[in-house]
Amino acid sequence: MDISGNGRRWDLRNANREQRMQRAAAVLGDACRGKVVEAGRIQDLLHSVLESGDRVCLEGNNQKQADFLAKALTKLDPGRVNGLHMLLSVLALPEHLDIFENGIASRLDFSFSGPQAVRLARLVAAGKLNIGAIHTYLELFGRYFVDLTPRVALVAAQAADRHGNLYTGPNTEDTPAIVEATAFSGGIVIAQVNQIVDVLPRVDIPADWVGFVVQAPTPHYIEPLFTRDPAQISDIQILMAMMAIKGIYAEYQVQRLNHGIGFDTAAIELILPTYAASLGLKGKICQHWALNPHPALIPAIEAGFVESIHSFGSELGMEDYIRARSDVFFVGPDGSMRSNRAFSQMAGHYACDMFIGSTLQIDLQGNSSTATAGRIAGFGGAPNMGADARGRRHASPGWLKAGRQARDGKNLIPRGQKLVVQIVETFREHMQPAFVERLDAWELAEQADMAIPPVMIYGEDVSHILTEEGLANLLLCRTDEEREQAVRGVAGYTPIGLGRDKRMVENLRDRGIIQRPEDLGIDKRLATRDLLAAKNMKDLVRASGGLYDPPKRFRNW
Amino acid sequence: MDISGNGRRWDLRNANREQRMQRAAAVLGDACRGKVVEAGRIQDLLHSVLESGDRVCLEGNNQKQADFLAKALTKLDPGRVNGLHMLLSVLALPEHLDIFENGIASRLDFSFSGPQAVRLARLVAAGKLNIGAIHTYLELFGRYFVDLTPRVALVAAQAADRHGNLYTGPNTEDTPAIVEATAFSGGIVIAQVNQIVDVLPRVDIPADWVGFVVQAPTPHYIEPLFTRDPAQISDIQILMAMMAIKGIYAEYQVQRLNHGIGFDTAAIELILPTYAASLGLKGKICQHWALNPHPALIPAIEAGFVESIHSFGSELGMEDYIRARSDVFFVGPDGSMRSNRAFSQMAGHYACDMFIGSTLQIDLQGNSSTATAGRIAGFGGAPNMGADARGRRHASPGWLKAGRQARDGKNLIPRGQKLVVQIVETFREHMQPAFVERLDAWELAEQADMAIPPVMIYGEDVSHILTEEGLANLLLCRTDEEREQAVRGVAGYTPIGLGRDKRMVENLRDRGIIQRPEDLGIDKRLATRDLLAAKNMKDLVRASGGLYDPPKRFRNW
């Protein structure tokens, strides 16, 4: 016990941890051997280790889910444990919200809630859930070390040994950041594992950092989030991909980049070995990636386009391919990948020259959002990638050029800038226009009582907007009006596009601020699926030499 | 061996690693037991493991130095190993440059070079050293995972066990990021340790990630970089500290922050328990920090001002105090601190509302730089802290207020903004004005053939400039001219300050853009050393209850 001169104790966190550990030991008895707890006693473990009001980090990642622990949380007695403050990267499973519905938790800080966005909005409206804030991944991890430090972390790993060392394998994702913040602040880490083994393939998390290990009855869930079937890529997406490569990748010599998720970016990946190669760009663009192991990138890797890929997480079915391509991926001595969302986000933010991704809505200032009324979707990693790293100081040709374009003629000291590209078709599904006067985010902000509208990527941070109609370079715009007309000028037949000032748009085109496919020297007739290096899942498997093993739902042959 | 259909091998990195390991085994024989190599054979180990042209990360941190390995590098035979591409966070030791002088290495990517800045510039001019780029810490770490992945990493740890597990203890700093990037890309990690023990206090780096361990003849060097003797704080610095607290900390309710290094910020830390407490600010400001364990913060911690501190590295002499204040610091189960520069920089960038720090020169746009002619000093972490995190989405009162002030009346969607404060006396030592027409950085850029001038913090990113004359709020400036006059208006009797437009400055004062001490309700007569909660090193020791044990050079009583 430490008591300072003023009589205050300064080791309350550790003392409290000790109490929790003792409660667990008393309740579990022989059901806990060393750090290994029997799965059937998980409720007892949680009841003894948790206290009402605790900040609890539950590993709900972009892909990997601590689903057994999530389900166990939902079944706690709210009379004994309630008012938990949940920290989750991603609200992916129904259980993540059942915890609130069942009265176990009341407050939530998170990053992304894709599949649960509608139900989340309902729970907020019903007063069952109070949102602290919506984050991007890196800022949520950052807060784990500042003002949102977890008391208890519930994580998922591939395997543990009997000492409690963890093997997270290819799907490491958020685990290191979560565990470090918890273990070194007097918190308790509980890991569900798929198996307990004598010798781990490698140690990812040292046993010293782990409180308890439970072998779950079924392996933890993983979502193959980054798999796109090339069969669904349209000619229009190929046209946009051609414009991206010629108008941006080649123009700015983009060597280090991140791709957002979706068919638009999959199309780009799939025409690297065909279209980009035909332009002589092999070795000149796209050599270094911060990216999940996208199956659509296999043909480009095989063609020697890609030097390195560091990944946020892994992708189901890519394990053997990654193992056999250890020159490209970050692979451990055991042959399986090491991913790390915190470090890959850091790399994507600071070491990449370009981010390109899709969105649902763009307004006249270029602000974009995936939030729509009644859905609290969150941001994930896109805003971190899709923003200039103002703390970056090293130069590259593309970064310098973007900076020059943005600052030319202004009274500013020279500086580089990140390329942030929004790629959208002017109409999305159900003929909803992608361009709008006013983002739905405004309405959502009112509904959910947010301080400011949940913008995914701010117009100020966007360098280019790319649609099937053309490419708008916002870096070159000098007034609000120019920027508005640049947006309208690529917004096609949407009301926003139809509302353009034709003379001004033609003037922007003369100045190279708007470029049509023909301005880029692109023959639209070539924009067909013939350019795809793989036209379907089977082609991807073939390109991988049979190493890629797609999940069942993608096996359509 | 993996050969794909196209006949290319994809495991060259691992195969090459294997060759290096075999060379080492053949040369070392019994001098290598498991992973432990005899210190006397370090040259043999490096000669067999390194190849000319390798990218080599040498752990030169802000504080901890792999000095034994650095010295060993300088003694290699340049006929056998040359053209190394060195990656270092900090060029701190003469050996770091001897490696170049001796013809072992030729290229350098780094972050900070404080003590070696002059010699670095000379080596560049002599063509003995080619600089890739100057980075901030986080972007250099990011590049380790993208296009600057090390083949060999030479790191320092407190202890190892016989398996090769590492204990980095309080001085973890950069080690986790360096080791992860190297170990998972077929690279080789060599660690110098102070001792080899049977059982480590805790495992910080798993043995699976480590290639070789060498017990160095002397403990690795650590610089107590963040210790400031309160005896050297002046009344003027106390006046500025009062303005900071009343004009910024209280005004924006700053709860999460980072302090740059120096006496200016030490003064702020030392009047928290006196002046800030007298304003009723305890519990309302400064509760959460991303900060090295500054001894000057001891009185504020003891007074209950501080809830949590996450640290980039540790500080010599603070070990026992930290151990006894585990509620405040991030401490492992062994009682010693866990620092982590990558995670703390992440936290500082994304989870802090304010950065305040000093600089050497500020120009009329508010751009600041520590670069002066003939010195290539680098940036360290300041630009990362001293910039808006554009990927941040969670709100706080101060962040929202700064964003409102910056955007009010502009055609922009609401957004928050980070507070970035530059605190300087108008004249620095030798009566050099801190305010200049043109930064020396321009001259240095020409000398060293840099693409753009090495600006530390860009004027666009600065929210406030604070001098003994007053506080300028740049967020509220609406034109280049207003900004220039706001800078001049706090530049005192420097030529820049004397060149002010007096009417315009008075107008800015009327609008609250410039605030004098009296405008802030600060009685200058109270700005004396009497406000310091500790007036000298002995007071700091006393405040710590005898737990703080300053390094010898600071023991002046």
Question: What are the key terms here?
Answer:
557 residues; alpha/beta; Glutaconate Coenzyme A-transferase; 3 domains; 19 helices
CATH level-4 homologous superfamily of the largest domain in chain A:
Glutaconate Coenzyme A-transferase
> Can you tell me the CATH class of the largest domain in chain A?
Alpha Beta
Give the number of DSSP strands of chain A.
24
Instruction: Provide the β-strand percentage band of chain A.
Output: 15-25%
How is the biggest beta sheet of chain A arranged? 10 strands, mixed
The structural class of chain A is: alpha/beta
**Amount of helix of chain A:** 25-40%
CA distance, first residue to last residue of chain A: 66 Å
Outline of chain A: globular
Q: Averaging pLDDT over every residue of chain A, what do you get?
A: 96
Q: Which two protein chains have the largest interface (Cβ within 8 Å of the partner's Cβ), and how many residues from each?
A: A-B, 112 and 112 residues
The oligomeric status of these chains comes to: homodimer
Plain-language structure description:
The structure is a homodimer of 557-residue chains. With 557 residues, chain A is of the alpha/beta class. Chain A folds into three domains: 196 residues, Glutaconate Coenzyme A-transferase (3-Layer(aba) Sandwich), CATH 3.40.1080; 124 residues, no CATH class; 163 residues, Glutaconate Coenzyme A-transferase, CATH 3.40.1080. Helices cover 31% and strands 17% of the residues of chain A. Chain A contains 19 helices and 24 strands. In chain A, strands 1, 2, 3, 5, 6, 7, 8, 9, 10 and 11 form a ten-stranded mixed sheet that branches. Chain A has an eight-stranded mixed sheet with strand order 15-14-13-16-19-22-23-24. In chain A, strands 4-12 form a two-stranded antiparallel ribbon. In chain A, helix 4 links the parallel strand 5 and strand 6. In chain A, helix 1 packs antiparallel against helix 2 and helix 3 runs parallel beside helix 4. Chain A is globular and about 80 Å long. Chain A starts with 11 loop residues before the first helix and ends in a 14-residue tail after the last helix. Chains A and B meet through helix 1, strand 7, helix 6, helix 7 and strand 14 of A and helix 1, strand 7, helix 6, helix 7 and strand 14 of B.
